[in-house]
Amino acid sequence: MSIQNINLGTAPSGADGDSVRTAFSKCANNDADLDTRVSAALSMANASLPKSGGNLTGKLVTAYGMGESLQVMQPMVIFGDPSGRKGGLTITTNGSNAYNSAYLAFERAGMFGCYFGINQSNELCVGGWSMGASVFRIWHEGNTVVDANNFIKKA
C-alpha cells in the first residue's frame, strides 16, 4: 500500500478537503503501512546481518556524531604504501574540526581503559581514561634519532 495523503482542501477554510473521519482513517492506514514496512526491513536486516559469527565481506561503514566514521574493510594493506586508506580497520574523523582526534578505545572491563590514536597535532599517542588527563606521545623511528651511545633523542 502507498502512503495516503490527506486532502487539506482550499485555504483558508479547507472546507472542500477530507473530513476529520477520513483524515484520521488515512493516518491510521499510513501508520499500519509504516509498521509493516519497518517489520519487513527489520526481518530482512536480521536475516542478512547475523549478530554473531559469519564473515564480513566488503566494507562496513557506520557514521555517528559530526562526520566521524568507522570503516572495516577487507585487509589489503602494505605498510609504507603512501596511497593510504587501505587498512583492515580505518578510523576517520571530520577533518574540518581541529579538535577531533582519530582514536581507538581499549578497555579491560573494570580493570583499565585507555585511548590510542592520532591527536589534534597529528601525533601518535596513548592516554586518557585510566591514565588520567595525560597524553603520551609514541616514540618511533619517524620522530626520533639515536645518538652514538644508542640513546633515543627527539628528532
Give the topology string: H per helix, E per strand.
Answer: HEEEEEEEEE
Strand content: 25-35%
Helicity, as a percent range: 10-25%
The domain tally reads: 3
Could you walk me through the main structural features you see in this protein, from its secondary elements to its overall organization?
The chain has 155 residues and is of the alpha+beta class. The chain folds into three domains: 1-52, no CATH class; 55-100, no CATH class; 101-155, no CATH class. It is built from one helix and nine strands; from the N terminus they run H-E-E-E-E-E-E-E-E-E. The protein has one helix at residues 20-48; strands spanning 60-64, 68-72, 89-92, 102-108, 112-118, 124-127, 135-137, 144-146, 152-154. The model has no long low-confidence stretch (mean pLDDT 78).
Notable features of this structure?
four-stranded antiparallel beta sheet, 3 domains, single chain, 1 helix, 9 strands, 155 residues, three-stranded antiparallel beta sheet, alpha+beta
Layout of secondary structure:
Layout: H1 20-48, E1 60-64, E2 68-72, E3 89-92, E4 102-108, E5 112-118, E6 124-127, E7 135-137, E8 144-146, E9 152-154
Antiparallel strand pairs: 1-2, 2-3, 4-5, 5-6, 6-7, 8-9
